[in-house]
């Protein structure tokens, strides 16, 4: 027999959900686009206060042409974050190691530069594989593994470079990240393609959905026939590959690398990735939001520098924006949800 | 309000009195001026459909939620400050066993039992562990349970866990005072434990302590409670209705606000054999030993038994979630070695498992309903990296939401925002959508109201009618009798010969315990 | 080792040594004095007025070190005198960021680029691109990079890094009477910082046969390990009585390392690139006995002069960035605050801005 | 019919625990004390290879007299970790800010040094309170808040110190951390007392038990009547106070502070805290294990430095030890558990 469908009283509990009201709508839109709004506002403010320097094509070039390393780092971080590994602290070190491997092999050991690049990417992949084996198959805490690997790889980078910057890479080779296309270096488009690809995979493919499910609930995913460990391991591996490629591009762009600097990427990488959770898909790590966050932060800092403010202001801006944006996004989401 | 407040039996003040308590979540009013009276020494039932506000009321009474302004709560005649302060409520004798039990798995039994009750020595502020252990042991002994105190709660089975949670609430009850609220605490208790549980309640209420019992098992309500309060959409439509002489049909009508048709099991005859039956042979696991079961397409076979008899292991062994130690299965003309099969292989072979633990194993609660429904489905899929076919997906989700009557019918809502019963429907939809050859269910209607239960039963039957073999493991005899064509009884890990054919609930109880059906509470 | 060679060395040629020591003492005394006048170049720069309205980029390796702020301020004043704007871009100790700064300057068609403490190789591609666009580049506080010799679009100002460390070495030789056992916390961060240490070692070996020098290699990447590596180096080298921090930047962990080794009472501290805090430690008689300081404000003006010349296609003169030794004795002659540091009065009469302006032919004031 | 107490199937879940066998025992002991064993081994190895330098009182002084800041930082971190806030990235910045506040107020603004210290501790407390309000009461993600606060407070520290190290504190004042007691500075004992106190609270008092429960499961704790938010907020506040006191002691020890130094503490703090989970109470954050980890790492590094190895070896050691120790502990625990 059938149940008489839709008893009158039954549906009353969900009135709120089925009829989204204006407040709700504003809340959602606010939390999606507020950071983009602030970005626009920043551009206006800087444009008004610094018209001569800010409103130039150089500004656009600087903002969009200088963040390749960060874009690759955030993409690598997103790979693992999306499958529920919250904090991969090792990506900057992987990138740094790969970036120093290229000039060390090519300049100091006379390897062909392409071979050296391949070797660097393989190093990144291997680092990702070690992370993956330890966390996924041996079950060691992710933070511990990646923190340890981060330090270890920094040590290796210092070792092979003898603690000093190595430079002298070919300027032809530099074209893989510096070749100008429509006023911007090709590295910008490489980062863009990477992020769009990641966004596509996550949003539109079964693989992406499986990744999100693994991130949300491993046990449920396993029972649904998803090969959870394979996906998690794959995420670490991809993170390694992406960081490796990013490292090669970074080395190419500067013509060499300094092994000591990789740690300085850690904060911006995390800041941009987490700020990304306040953009487009509030509360969720998402590639496009992250990309916007990267350029938003770059805009903010650049404008401040053009205004000639002291060095500490950039830190205050970075920290303040991160806290305020994510707090507002959290509050708006809470109100609308 | 609608309900007629009956004269209180005996002396003056009610033990617990709730007046006009409301609770609003965002734009959703979960409770509307609820009234409730619990007199000393009674077992008082609180029933209602999923999402009618029972748990919310319990949580308001313990201070977990703050109520809307305006309501009043009295304990033994004296008003309780609102919002309720948890420690104050407990001091006044109000304790709750929450629906989710409220245990921390990687903590020991004694720690869980004494959680929130630890007392420090005056000077050193140290915990007096010997006293704590004594108190814990005493609480458990009262329930007749012998669990090592230093064992992690996660290592206990569901029934022992429930018992620990119940013991925790009972330890605060002083004879003759207080109210203990059980929010669906009995759902995972087996029949034998249930009987013991009610015996214990009898001794508790005999001293004058009161009990408020929230449950979906209407027979429990009719058997065990003295009076019942019925919530419908957050409104108390009946307050303190005496259960003596109340029929189940009456109660259902009050609860749903309408007549429920076809509550009685209509003989469901499996369609004529259309394909080869699914055969399972020599299945062994941790408890189950050498089990042979065969399920024909279109047939619904139940497995049951007392706790620990191994019937609840079968679903997980058959679906590759837990490794069997031995066993083979013939499915769709193929032979599968159960000891080597993993979940992915089982799904590929056409097995679908609806597990018991909805939150842990069933649904990813922060993902949307649609995503959950589509997770296991492979019909809309062309390859891991190919774009998903959104239109086909949306159509499929809409179809299942409608078929199982998921409320609200919004695919883009996070699954965690649905009520438990509706989550259960989504869980079922997720697996029915895969069009399985063998559907394996574990406690499919646990903690689900009668209306939802019907929707679920209808969906399972529809799947069977479409040629799916269905295997149900359950400890709820009503559920089994409602669903099954055959029921296999397990004893000590072994499947008993002579399955019951279209048994009634009484038949099943009798077969399990080899005794007649008795009232839960004398 | 020191105890053995020291007395033996002195006893072998006492007279010669004493003579050498007193010579050295004279030069140390001189280095402890303020300059009578700053060494402002003499050949005039014509056509500075044609640069009015241009923008020069100043890229310090990081903004988190105070001497760059001092230089930047002086540079701003100097450029403003000629109507040229200054744009500071923080290198953030990161090659990508430095390259971004250079590209920013290139993209904005800057009049010139001044980098501070950045090896050419750290941003080689970006700097090459800037020079290809005929934007002159001035590398300051670095030794010239042999792979990138100075030309019409590239100039170097060396800074006083090596000189400061040599001066500190001289002071130690004099102070110890030629028997110092020295530990140098030397930075491996760039070829320049390494070469400064080498210069100091040469100074010791040339002028003090009785001295023993040990170098403890430190790196910004291992900042957290500087303290413990310092103390272990002290434990490993018995008899250390001087510890040199290559820059004031490493002074705090160096001090911690000395404290941890428990030998604080027998060890004298030394440092270079003095900042306010270094002088405060001197006047507070805390650990530090000597700190060499380079004239950062003057460097700012000299950099401006150099970039003007590069922008106008002229030859660069050789600039000497003055330096001075501060000790516990002479630190009271200057005021240890940021204002005094900023005017350049630590090193000599603060009138060099006017001299530069005269050189450039721009109006006073 | 009555329930036979302990139905056969009922107990099956915990057979393993009630009969501990030898393998189990070895596994547990191994995972508890393995790091301590390695520590002893290290001491022996260094003692043999470097008898002249390693086996001296200077070594002991260096190892145990140098880690005060780290001890305070790990203690602050433990406060929040124990209540389930996994990664408070701001503690080093809080310590750094408090440490610079003392000399800035006392030296540059002429405050009484004790008043300046009090102010510094108040600053730390305020920072903890901000962290607490944002995470506990507004529900913002902990990593975001503390990452943001970390950057922001670094900026503030750079600002008030004008990006320069400030020194010139009284040497009398230095006695609060340098006063020698039995060959070690009093700072060592202060750290020891702090950690022992924390261990006592966590292990023996109802508060500690409640903190652990809040860390394990907030919802359950709240249902059990524990004031979850108050405990979480309290943890952030305590972390601020501890970091503040640590900062004052650090400033006193060096007679001033360098605002840029604080970030270099981040890695060692996390490394020691996570390594602590492999000691004494495997798999659990615990103060005594953390304290041992701090001195273990200090020993390892010092010995390497005494052997005169290059700077990068220390990084490799740090990272390698962290990864290997926690991996082994995880594996041993897995086998025994
Ligand atoms: N945390 C919450 N936030 C928002 N709404 C809530 C929340 N908890 C409960 N509700 C709402 O309160 C209503 C009543 O829920 P409650 O849990 O009390 O139902 P119940 O009667 O216990 O149901 P069940 O029988 O399934 O346990 C639901 O409709 C739900 O929408
Ligand atoms: N976090 C939440 N936000 C919004 N609505 C919620 C939330 N949690 C629950 N609800 C709503 O509360 C209602 C009931 O939820 P709840 O789980 O309390 O029901 P329940 O009565 O316990 O049901 P069941 O018996 O099926 O477990 C649902 O309608 C659901 O939409
Ligand atoms: Mg409920
Ligand atoms: Mg429920």
Poorly predicted sequence stretches spanning 5 or more consecutive residues of chain B: 1-10
| Global outline of chain A | globular
Report the principal-axis shape of chain B. Answer: globular
Q: How many extended strands of chain A?
A: 4
CA radius of gyration of chain A: 22 Å
CATH topology of chain A: ABC transporter involved in vitamin B12 uptake, BtuC
CATH superfamily of the largest domain in chain B: P-loop containing nucleotide triphosphate hydrolases
Kindly, what is the distance between the CA atoms of the first and last residues of chain B, rounded to a whole number of angstroms?
33 Å
Which ligands, by name, code or SMILES, are bound?
adenosine-5'-triphosphate, magnesium ion
How would you classify the helix and strand content of chain A by structural class? Answer: mainly alpha
Query: Looking at CATH, which topology of the largest domain in chain B would you report?
Result: Rossmann fold
Organism (chain B): Amycolatopsis acidicola
Pfam families (chain B): ABC_tran
Domain ABC transporter (chain B): 16-258, 272-517
Protein name (chain B): Sugar ABC transporter ATP-binding protein
Concise account of the structure shown:
Chain B is α/β, with parallel strands linked by helices and 522 residues long. In chain B, 31% of the residues lie in helices and 22% in strands. In chain B, helix 14 packs parallel to helix 15 (450-465).
Q: What does this protein structure show overall?
A:
The complex is a heterotetramer, with two copies of chain A (337 residues), one copy of chain B (522 residues) and one copy of chain C (365 residues). Chain A is mainly alpha-helical and 337 residues long. In chain A, 73% of the residues lie in helices and 2% in strands. Chain A is built from 16 helices and four strands. Residues 1-20 of chain A have low confidence and may be disordered. With 522 residues, chain B is α/β, with parallel strands linked by helices. Chain B folds into four domains: 1-93 and 180-259, Rossmann fold (3-Layer(aba) Sandwich), CATH 3.40.50; 104-172, no CATH class; 263-350 and 436-522, P-loop containing nucleotide triphosphate hydrolases (Rossmann fold, 3-Layer(aba) Sandwich), CATH 3.40.50.300; 358-435, no CATH class. Chain B is built from 17 helices and 21 strands. In chain B, strand 14 (326-331) and strand 15 (334-337) form a beta hairpin. The radius of gyration of chain B is 24 Å and the shape is globular. Mean pLDDT of chain B is 81; it is low at 1-10. Chain C has 13 helices and eleven strands. In chain C, helix 4 packs parallel to helix 5. The N and C termini of chain C lie far apart (59 Å). Chains in contact: A-B, A-C, A-D, B-D, C-D. At the A-D interface, helix 8, helix 14 and helix 16 of A face helix 8, helix 14 and helix 16 of D. One magnesium ion binds at residues 54-55, 99, 183 of chain B.
């Amino acid at each position: 027999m059938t149940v008489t469908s839709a008893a009158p009283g039954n549906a009353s509990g969900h009135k709120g959900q089925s009829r989204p009201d204006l407040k709700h709508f504003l809340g959602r839109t606010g939390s999606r686009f507020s950071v983009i709004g602030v970005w626009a506002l920043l551009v206006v403010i800087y444009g008004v206060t610094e018209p001569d320097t800010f409103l130039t094509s150089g500004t656009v070039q600087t903002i969009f042409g200088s963040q390749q390393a960060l874009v690759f780092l955030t993409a690598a971080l997103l790979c693992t974050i999306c499958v529920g590994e919250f904090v991969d602290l090792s990506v900057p070190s992987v990138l740094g190691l790969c970036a120093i491997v290229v000039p060390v092999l090519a300049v100091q050991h006379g390897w062909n530069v392409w071979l050296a690049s391949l070797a660097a990417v393989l190093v990144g992949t291997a680092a990702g594989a070690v992370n993956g084996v330890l966390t996924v198959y041996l079950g060691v805490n992710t933070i511990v593994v990646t923190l340890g690997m981060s330090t270890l790889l920094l040590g290796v980078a210092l070792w092979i470079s003898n603690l000093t910057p190595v430079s002298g890479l070919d300027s032809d080779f530099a074209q893989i990240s510096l070749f100008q296309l429509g006023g911007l270096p090709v590295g910008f488009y490489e980062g863009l393609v990477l992020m769009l690809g990641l966004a596509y995979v996550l949003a539109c493919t079964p693989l992406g959905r499986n990744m999100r499910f693994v991130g949300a609930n491993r046990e449920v995913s396993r029972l649904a026939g998803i090969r959870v460990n394979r996906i998690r391991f794959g995420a670490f591996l991809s993170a390694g590959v992406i960081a490796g490629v990013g490292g090669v591009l970074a080395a190419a762009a500067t013509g060499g690398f300094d092994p000591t600097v990789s740690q300085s990427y850690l904060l911006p990488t995390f800041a941009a990735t987490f700020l990304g959770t306040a953009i487009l898909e509030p509360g969720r790590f998402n590639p496009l939001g992250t990309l916007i966050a990267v350029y938003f932060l770059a805009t903010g800092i650049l404008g401040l520098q053009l205004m000639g403010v002291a060095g500490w202001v950039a830190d205050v801006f970075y920290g303040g924006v991160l806290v305020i944006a994510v707090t507002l996004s959290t509050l708006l989401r809470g109100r609308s949800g | 309000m609608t309900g007629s407040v009956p004269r209180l039996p005996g002396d003056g003040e009610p033990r617990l009195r709730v007046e006009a308590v409301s609770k609003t979540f965002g734009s959703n009013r979960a409770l509307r001026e609820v009234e409730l009276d619990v007199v000393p020494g009674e077992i008082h039932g609180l029933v209602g459909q999923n999402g009618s506000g029972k748990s919310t009321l319990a949580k308001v009474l313990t201070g977990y939620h703050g109520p809307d302004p305006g309501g009043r709560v009295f304990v033994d005649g004296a008003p309780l400050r609102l919002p309720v302060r948890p420690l104050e409520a407990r001091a006044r004798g109000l304790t709750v066993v929450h629906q989710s039990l409220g245990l921390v798995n990687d903590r020991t039994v004694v720690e869980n039992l004494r959680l929130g009750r630890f007392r420090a020595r005056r000077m050193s502020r140290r915990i007096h562990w010997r006293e704590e252990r004594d108190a814990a042991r005493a609480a458990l002994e009262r329930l007749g349970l012998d669990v090592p105190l230093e064992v992690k709660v996660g290592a206990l089975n569901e029934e022992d866990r429930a018992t620990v949670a119940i013991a925790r609430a009972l330890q605060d009850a002083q004879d003759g005072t207080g109210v203990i609220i059980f929010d669906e605490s009995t759902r995972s208790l087996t029949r034998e434990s249930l009987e013991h549980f009610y015996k214990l309640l009898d001794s508790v209420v005999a001293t004058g302590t009161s009990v408020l019992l929230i449950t979906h098992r209407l027979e429990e309500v009719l058997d065990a409670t003295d009076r019942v309060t019925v919530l419908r959409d957050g409104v108390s439509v009946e307050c303190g209705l005496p259960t003596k002489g109340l029929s189940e049909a009456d109660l259902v009508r009050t609860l749903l606000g309408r007549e429920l048709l076809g509550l009685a099991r209509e003989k469901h005859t499996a369609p004529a054999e259309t394909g080869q039956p699914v055969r399972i042979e020599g299945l062994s696991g941790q408890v189950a030993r050498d089990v042979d079961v065969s399920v024909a397409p279109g047939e619904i076979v139940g497995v049951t038994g007392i706790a620990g008899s191994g019937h609840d292991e079968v679903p997980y062994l058959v679906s590759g979630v837990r490794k069997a130690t031995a066993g083979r299965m013939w499915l769709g003309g193929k032979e599968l070695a159960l000891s080597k099969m993993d979940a992915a292989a089982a799904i590929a072979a056409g097995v679908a498992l609806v597990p018991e633990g909805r939150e842990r194993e069933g649904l990813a609660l922060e993902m949307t309903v649609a995503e959950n429904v589509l997770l296991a489905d492979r019909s809309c899929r062309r390859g891991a990296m190919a774009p998903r076919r959104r239109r086909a997906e949306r159509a499929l989700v809409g179809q299942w939401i409608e078929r199982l009557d998921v409320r609200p019918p919004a695919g883009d809502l996070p699954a965690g925002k649905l009520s438990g019963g509706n989550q259960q429907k989504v869980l079922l939809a997720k697996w029915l959508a895969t069009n399985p050859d063998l559907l394996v269910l574990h406690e499919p209607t646990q903690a689900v109201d009668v209306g939802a239960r019907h929707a679920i039963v209808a969906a399972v039957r529809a799947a069977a009618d479409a040629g799916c073999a269905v295997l149900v493991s359950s400890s709820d005899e009503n559920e089994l009798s409602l669903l099954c064509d055959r029921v296999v009884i397990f004893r000590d890990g072994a499947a008993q010969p002579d399955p019951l054919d279209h048994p009634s609930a009484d038949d099943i109880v009798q077969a399990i315990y080899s005794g007649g059906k008795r009232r839960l509470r004398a | 080792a020191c105890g053995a060679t020291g007395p033996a060395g002195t006893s072998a040629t006492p007279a010669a040594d004493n003579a050498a020591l007193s010579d050295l003492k004279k030069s140390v005394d001189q280095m402890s004095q303020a300059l009578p006048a700053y060494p402002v170049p003499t050949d005039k720069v014509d056509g500075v007025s044609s640069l009015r309205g241009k923008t020069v980029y100043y890229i310090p390796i990081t903004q988190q070190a105070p001497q760059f702020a001092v230089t930047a301020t002086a540079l701003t004043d100097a450029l403003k005198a000629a109507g040229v704007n200054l744009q500071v871009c923080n290198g953030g100790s990161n090659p990508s960021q430095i390259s971004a700064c250079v590209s920013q300057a290139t993209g904005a068609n800057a009049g010139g680029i001044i980098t501070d403490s950045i090896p050419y190789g750290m941003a080689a591609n970006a700097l090459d691109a800037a020079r290809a666009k005929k934007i002159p580049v001035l590398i300051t506080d670095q030794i010239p990079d042999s792979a990138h010799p100075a030309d019409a679009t590239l100039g170097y100002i060396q800074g006083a890094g090596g000189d400061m460390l040599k001066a500190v070495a001289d002071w130690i030789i004099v102070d110890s009477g030629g028997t110092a056992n020295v530990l140098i916390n030397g930075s491996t961060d760039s070829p320049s910082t390494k070469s400064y240490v080498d210069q100091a070692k040469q100074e010791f070996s040339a002028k003090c046969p009785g001295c023993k020098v040990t170098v403890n290699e430190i790196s910004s990447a291992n900042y957290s390990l500087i303290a413990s590596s310092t103390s272990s180096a002290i434990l490993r080298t018995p008899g250390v009585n001087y510890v040199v921090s290559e820059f004031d930047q490493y002074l705090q962990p160096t001090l911690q390392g000395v404290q941890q080794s428990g030998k604080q009472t027998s060890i004298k501290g030394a440092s270079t690139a003095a900042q306010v805090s270094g002088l405060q430690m001197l006047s507070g008689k805390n650990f530090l006995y000597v700190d060499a300081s380079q004239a950062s404000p003057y460097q700012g003006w000299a950099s401006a002069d150099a970039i003007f010349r590069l922008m106008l296609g002229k030859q660069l003169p050789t600039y000497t960035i003055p330096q001075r030794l501060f000790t516990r004795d002479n630190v009271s002659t200057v005021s240890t605050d940021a204002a005094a540091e900023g005017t350049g009065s630590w090193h000599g009469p603060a009138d060099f801005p006017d001299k530069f302006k005269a050189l450039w032919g721009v109006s006073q004031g």
